[in-house]
């Protein structure tokens, strides 16, 4: 027992001595390396050997960071793409509205321009509804007695005659278009001065020119002639464009030829019309 204790004591002192010697040697090596850099080359080789291990150890972390950044970048790109698509759609809508406004501006300028050219008093009216009955050509406008609208008042657009007012209420009116089968308008051929009557046929963009005799037909009217109001009947002022002749057919069995024309006004496409007051009236 006593020998065992002595042996343990000797081993403990030997261990302490080794620790002290290691510490002293370490301090000596550090001081020597600090002053003479003897171990710099050793450290360089050791770092070179350790670097692959460090790289392999750090690889999962770097891969995770790269994956996170890639996912974040893709999500950001997708969000940016979606935002740009939304912005593009909004701009397209704005552009469509811009084109519509430009077209609206052009129509209004044409209407107002025509009022300046003719010299009569005019007022713009909006088309509220269209009569859908077969062979009927009537429209409802947003002007009435409160706007001084009166029966048989001429209605035009920027291109020519559209029709006349046949019914007036306080805030709206009904207009019969010149293509309605119940509408007849005194007109004349600009080239020859031939007077005739333009009658509606109940079809889209067609007028029949009445009472044109077969005798001397080739001299009095031909395809392409411009038809204007004659001023007869005292409803329409003289000289407003009405139609262009598109067909002239002699009818040997009857005293009058069959002549058709196409209206100058955009009867089926207008959204606004012009109400016309003749000079020195109303």
The CATH class label of the largest domain is: Mainly Beta
CATH fold-level label of the largest domain: Thrombin, subunit H
% residues in beta strands: 25-35%
| Tally of domains | 2
CATH superfamily heading of the largest domain: Rod shape-determining protein MreC, domain 1
Computed Rg: 49 Å
Question: Any idea what the CATH architecture of the largest domain is?
Answer: Beta Barrel
Strand arrangement within the widest β-sheet reads 1-2-5-4-3-12
- How many H/I helical runs? 3
Return residue spans where pLDDT drops below 50 for at least 5 consecutive residues.
Answer: none
**Number of β-strand runs:** 12
Give helix % range.
40-55%
Sketch the major β-sheet.
Answer: 6 strands, antiparallel, barrel
End-to-end Cα distance, whole Å, is 144 Å
Q: What class do helices, strands and sheet pairing give?
A: alpha+beta
Shape by Cα distribution: rod-shaped
Mean pLDDT reading: 80
Order of helices and strands: HHEEEEEEEEHEEEE
Tell me what the structure shows.
Helices cover 42% and strands 25% of the residues. It is an alpha+beta fold and 282 residues long. It folds into two domains: 38-118; 121-277, Rod shape-determining protein MreC, domain 1 (Thrombin, subunit H, Beta Barrel). It has a six-stranded antiparallel beta barrel with strand order 1-2-5-4-3-12. It is rod-shaped.
Quick structural summary:
The protein has 282 residues and is of the alpha+beta class.
């Amino acid at each position: 027992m006593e020998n065992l204790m002595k042996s343990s004591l000797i081993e403990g002192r030997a261990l302490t001595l080794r620790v002290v010697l290691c510490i002293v040697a370490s301090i000596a090596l550090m001081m020597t390396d600090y002053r003479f850099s003897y171990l710099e080359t050793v450290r360089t080789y050791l770092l070179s050997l350790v670097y692959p291990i460090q790289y392999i150890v750090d690889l999962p972390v770097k891969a995770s960071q790269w994956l996170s950044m890639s996912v974040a970048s893709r999500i950001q790109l997708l969000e940016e793409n979606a935002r740009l698509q939304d912005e593009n759609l909004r701009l397209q809508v704005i552009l469509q509205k811009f084109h519509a406004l430009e077209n609206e501006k052009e129509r209004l300028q044409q209407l107002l321009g025509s009022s300046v050219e003719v010299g009569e008093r005019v007022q713009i009216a909006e088309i509220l509804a269209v009569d859908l009955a077969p062979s009927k050509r009537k429209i409802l406008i947003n002007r009435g007695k409160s706007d001084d609208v009166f029966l048989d008042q001429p209605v035009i657009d920027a291109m020519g005659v559209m029709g006349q007012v046949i019914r007036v209420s306080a805030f709206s009116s009904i207009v019969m278009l010149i293509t309605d089968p119940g509408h007849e308008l005194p007109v004349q051929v600009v080239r020859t001065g031939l007077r005739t009557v333009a009658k509606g046929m109940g079809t889209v963009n067609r007028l029949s020119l009445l009472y044109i005799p077969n005798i001397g037909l080739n001299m009095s009217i031909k395809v392409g002639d411009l038809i204007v109001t004659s001023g007869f009947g005292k409803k329409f002022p003289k000289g407003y464009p009405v139609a262009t002749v598109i067909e002239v057919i002699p009818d040997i069995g009857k005293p009058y030829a069959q002549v058709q024309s196409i209206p100058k006004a955009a009867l089926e496409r207008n959204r606004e019309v012009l109400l016309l007051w003749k000079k020195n009236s109303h």
